[in-house]
Every structure is written in C-alpha cells, then in structure tokens.
Specification:
The chain is an alpha/beta fold and 260 residues long. It has ten helices and seven strands.
Length: 260
C-alpha cells in the first residue's frame, strides 16, 4: 500500500489546509464549506490513519507522520498556504509551520493547543482521563470514540445536538485505524510544542470555546507570541466551528484577509 494522503479541494481564494482532530476525518468540515469556499480555497485532509488516508507503523513517531503530510503538501501546495488545525490537528499545524519548509503564511488553532496534558503550571487534560481513554481503547475503539464525542460536547448548551451532528458527519467516512487512535492518544499525553509555537513568525489565530473541558481557555494567557489574535466563543465547547458557525466563518475570513 502506498503512503498516499487523502484530501479534497474546493473554493477559490487564499489556500487553506484544514486538519481535523482525534478520531475524526475530513468530513467534519462539511457544514462550513458552502460558506467558506466563496472566499477561500480549502484543502481538507484525512490525517494518517483516519478517513481514507492509510496508516503505517512508522507514523507512530509523530515526526514521521508530520513528514508524510509535509511531503504531500509540498507536492500539492507549492505556493503560499495557511494551515488550520482543530484539536489534535493543531499539533500538526504547529509542527508543519515550525519546520519552515512549507510557505506558511498563517496558522489558526481551533480548540487546540501545543500541549494538551495537564501539569502543575499548565491547565489541560488530566492524566487519569487520558489513561482511561487508553484503557478503553484497548477493549473497544468504537465505544471509546463514542465516549470522546460526549466529552467534546460536554458543557455545550446543545450537547445532544452536537453529538448527533458529529455522528452524522463521521458516518460518511471510513472508521479510523486503531493504531492511529493509540498513537494519537499518546501524542495528546506526551507532546509539548510550546517552544515551537512561540517561535512561529507568522500570524496566528486562536479560537477557544469558553465551555471547553479539553482545552481550558486559561491556556490563552499562558501562551505568549507576537502577531497573535485570540477569540473566545462563549456558547461553545470543543467545537466552536459547529456551535457558532457564522461567527467562526467570519473570524477565519477576516484573519485570512489581513496582510502578513
């Protein structure tokens, strides 16, 4: 099997790469495309092991997974490009921009962070929560994804609606590779890209859900970076791009139009 990344492109305008989160695939962006494609050219990616992108054992090394995606983008996006990552996809976005191989103009992070796990001086996901997901994953990965969907919606004013929508969007794609799920949880537990994020020279946009239980908005003030813009979505949990869709699209388009 060849190491081919699956993606699709639509729209006209500034080029954006959209990177989904753990357990998901590129279909999660479908509700946004009709609006955003009027202003932006969007390439939605299935990350390695998710959707229609194959998984290989060497991708368990995060840097190898990033390299596979980087090679794909160098082939298909030779010009200036912007990268947006949601949740785990934000780790890819930061790593790609920090390498400075691609001509990255802007980075947007949705409910994401360079470090997901909690430590004494850093709010984040508690170690026992990640350990619980890892244990469940070894028993039943489908049930684990169900549980993770519930955690993502936790705190939202419309929990049942959010979970139902994510279910519907995920149903249109292939199931994730269990090894990719295992690797992704390990990355969420271990990776710390704060130095890489703070060294980025391109403008960044950080979008937080005030009700998010996975990426606390308290992180916002702990990350310091020039040319940084932060927006808080008061009625959102971990999916502000679904909860407050119109405002989200407006924020991304305005960010895309700013000079760099």
């Amino acid at each position: 099997m060849t190491k081919k990344i699956s993606d699709s492109v639509q729209g006209e305008g500034a080029s954006w790469i959209f990177l989904h989160g753990w357990g998901m695939h590129s279909g999660i962006w479908q509700p946004l495309l009709a609006t955003l494609s009027n202003s932006l050219r969007i390439r939605t990616i299935d990350l390695p092991g998710f959707g229609d992108s194959p998984w290989h054992a060497d991708y368990a090394d995060f840097e190898q997974a990033v390299t596979a995606l980087e090679k794909h983008l160098l082939e298909h996006e030779p010009g200036p490009v912007n990268i947006m990552g949601w949740s785990m996809g934000g780790l890819y976005a930061i790593a790609l921009a920090a390498r400075q191989t691609l001509n990255v103009q802007r980075v947007a992070l949705i409910a994401s962070t360079p470090k997901f796990s909690q430590e004494p001086s850093w709010p984040g996901i508690q170690a026992n929560v990640l350990a619980m997901f890892q244990k469940q994953l070894s028993r039943d990965f489908r049930a684990t994804i169900e549980r993770f969907l519930a955690v993502q919606a936790m705190g939202s004013p419309h929990v049942k609606r959010d979970i139902r929508l994510m279910h519907e969007l995920l149903a249109d794609g292939a199931e994730p590779n269990p090894e990719a799920l295992i690797a992704g949880l390990k990355w969420l537990q271990e990776i710390d890209l704060r130095p890489q994020f703070e060294s980025l020279t391109c403008p960044t946009l950080r979008l937080y859900g005030r009700r998010d239980s996975l990426v606390p908005i308290r992180q916002a003030e702990l990350l310091q970076k020039p040319i940084d813009h932060i927006e808080i979505f008061a009625e959102s949990a971990h999916t502000p791009f679904l909860n407050e869709r119109e405002r989200f699209c407006q924020a991304l388009i305005e960010f895309s139009e700013r000079s760099v």
